[in-house]
Write a structure and sequence with these properties.
By secondary structure, the chain is mainly beta. Helices cover 13% and strands 39% of the residues. It has helices at residues 124-134, 147-150, 158-164, and strands spanning 20-22, 28-34, 44-50, 55-61, 66-80, 83-88, 92-95, 101-105, 111-118, 153-154.
């Protein structure tokens, strides 16, 4: 096991009113809170709000980072490997590096989650890229070109497909 020591020396404060938001008006809203450079690589964090039954992220894995999901409100379904976990308000799910995972609001439910990736990778530009896809400025396939940059590698999951229908 290696020890990672983040390289930053000033307190990071992000005011909710000043945080960038992507996905406004869609079933998935991302409030971008702290990106990796601000925390010296320690973490990246965002708040993800999913409308009733909305899909969040399709199956993917991070080669270098763990991802933590803390459910602030509602009920989420999370894929971790071959297991689908239903998490409710106050529950925490941590997915290890290299483990295929996905998330969505449970059917008929909303889900509001704090998501933390550690060590951090630059995620804000990833969510901006998703926004460009949403508005048709770039193709969905363009994500395949930046998987290494964002440490997000897409895959498939029969378990997730069977759960989400």
């Amino acid at each position: 096991m290696s020890l990672f020591i983040p390289d930053f020396d000033e307190t990071v404060v992000v005011r909710a009113a000043e945080a960038e938001v992507t996905g406004t008006g869609s079933p998935v809203t991302n409030q971008l809170l702290v990106d990796s450079p601000a925390s010296g690589g320690a973490l990246s964090t965002m708040r993800v709000t999913l409308g009733r039954g909305a899909n969040g992220a399709r199956p993917h894995h991070h080669g270098k980072s763990a991802e933590m999901f803390y459910v602030l409100d509602g009920t989420a379904q999370l894929l971790s490997g071959d297991q689908v976990v239903t998490a409710e308000r106050g529950d925490v799910v941590v997915v290890p590096p290299g483990t295929q995972h996905a998330f969505a609001a449970a059917p008929g439910e909303i889900a509001d989650m704090l998501v933390i990736i550690t060590p951090g990778v630059e995620r804000f530009e990833y969510f901006r890229h998703l926004e460009r896809i949403r508005y048709g400025k770039v193709s969905p396939e363009s994500l395949l070109e930046v998987q290494d940059l964002y440490d997000s590698y897409f895959g498939t999951s029969a378990v997730w497909d069977a759960t989400r229908g």
